[in-house]
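Here is a protein:
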Amino acid sequence: MLKHFLARFVLEPYRDLARRLERMELSVHRLEIALDALIVSPKYVPDDVVAFNGQAQRKRIFADIVSAVPFDAIVETGTCLGDTTRYMSRTTRQRVYSCELSQTFYSLAKMRLAGLTDIHLELTDSRRFLRKLGQNELVDKYVFFYLDAHWYDDLPLAEEIDIIGSYWKQFVVMIDDFKVPCDPDYGYDDYGGDKVLGLELLRTVLTKQNLVLYFPAASSKEETGARRGCVVAAPKGEMSQKLSQLASLRQWKG
C-alpha cells in the first residue's frame, strides 16, 4: 500500500516534471537546428557529411541496398531540413517523395531545396501521405522507404509499416533512431514507458506483414557522426534474399 502511495503521489509528479523538461530540451534543440539552417545554410549545398546523421556506415548500407535493388522511387517520412532527402535523390538519381509534419521544417526544406524537380515535398501526416502514395502509380513499383517521422508522443512507425506492407509488395524499409540489439552505443529514441524505438514496439506489425529484419553489420565504434541506430526491413522473398547478400547488414534471427 505504501509503495503504491509513493508511486502515485510522490514519485509520479517528479516523473512528469522530468518528462516535461525533456520535451522542453528537445523543443529547444529543434529550434537550434532550424536557426542554424536559416542562418548558416539557407540553401542546400551538396555535402556528403551531413546526410544520414553524418554516418559513414549508414551511407554504406544505403548504397549497398540501392545497388542491389532496382528501385523506381524513394519515399521519406520526416523531411526535417532536407539534407538526407537531397542526398538520396542525388546519389540514386531517383525521384524522392517526402513529407514533414512540422510547418517550420517543411518551410525550411522547401526553401533549401527550391528548384529541384526530382523532389516532391508535402506538409502532412506521414500516415496520410503513405496512404495517398499507395493509391497512385507508385503502388506497383519497387520503393525504398526511409522512416524518420517519429517524435515524442507521436510514434507512427507501426502504422507506417502496416500501411506500406498493405499497399506494396516489393519494398525495403529503413528506420532511423532505432535500438540495435547487443550494441547499446548506437543511439535510439526513448520517450519513456513503452515509447522506445525498438523491436517490442513493432513486434506485432512485423509478424503481420511477414518482414525480415536486418541491423548494421558494423559496430557503433566503427560508425561516424551521430552514431544513431537503424533497422532495415523487407518482405520475405525476393527483397529479403537480396538484402541477405549484403556485407553491410546482418540478419536478425532473435
Notes: The chain has two domains: 1-40, 43-251. Residues 2-40 form the longest helix (39 residues). Residues 43-251 form a domain with the Rossmann fold fold (CATH 3.40.50.150).
